[in-house]
């Protein structure tokens, strides 16, 4: 396999390593029903993921009427309780993820996650996927006082994973902005949840399948 010119490969989680849209949609719709609102479809939910659960609820409510911080305060605990209980009912890795992660590790890279999912839920999901121990660092939305697109969580994840030359892999504009702010090369996945085509994220490269990741990194 081609040499990987990076010490750390930093991944976003939702829409990048895993398709979590089914479970996120079920939990958002559980909140919307509890608040007397119509449910939303999967494609709509995918557009709203990437900036954390509160934004998901705020924008989910806005689709059918009033949306306010007070309503988000009401809905968010309902969301957290439901999502924690259904964290991996339908969530699955994208095809080829595990083989690609194994190949990166075999090539000497350390792996890390930087997500806007709360840290506790991230660990729940990682454990449910059988991925405990695969990542040298997991930084969530509430690990630090700031979240993506602030560069601090990405820098923290890189430091915790051992430091060195890093690259960021993600699916959304939040990830692209995080990478730019942190001064990291950015690889976009085309199959994630972004609200725009991957080609419009300003990435250094775009992959449409995990089998292409190692050679793409080698060419950066
Ligand atoms: O918005 C979220 O809840 C998490 O999304 P991310 O894993 O893509 O950062
Ligand atoms: Mg994402």
TrEMBL record:
Keywords: Carbohydrate metabolism, Hydrolase, Magnesium, Metal-binding. Its cofactor is Mg(2+). GO terms for cellular component: cytosol. Gene3D superfamilies: HAD superfamily/HAD-like, Putative phosphatase, domain 2. Pathway: Organic acid metabolism; glycolate biosynthesis; glycolate from 2-phosphoglycolate: step 1/1. Belongs to the HAD-like hydrolase superfamily. CbbY/CbbZ/Gph/YieH family. HAMAP family: GPH_hydrolase_bact. Specifically catalyzes the dephosphorylation of 2-phosphoglycolate. Is involved in the dissimilation of the intracellular 2-phosphoglycolate formed during the DNA repair of 3'-phosphoglycolate ends, a major class of DNA lesions induced by oxidative stress. This is Phosphoglycolate phosphatase.
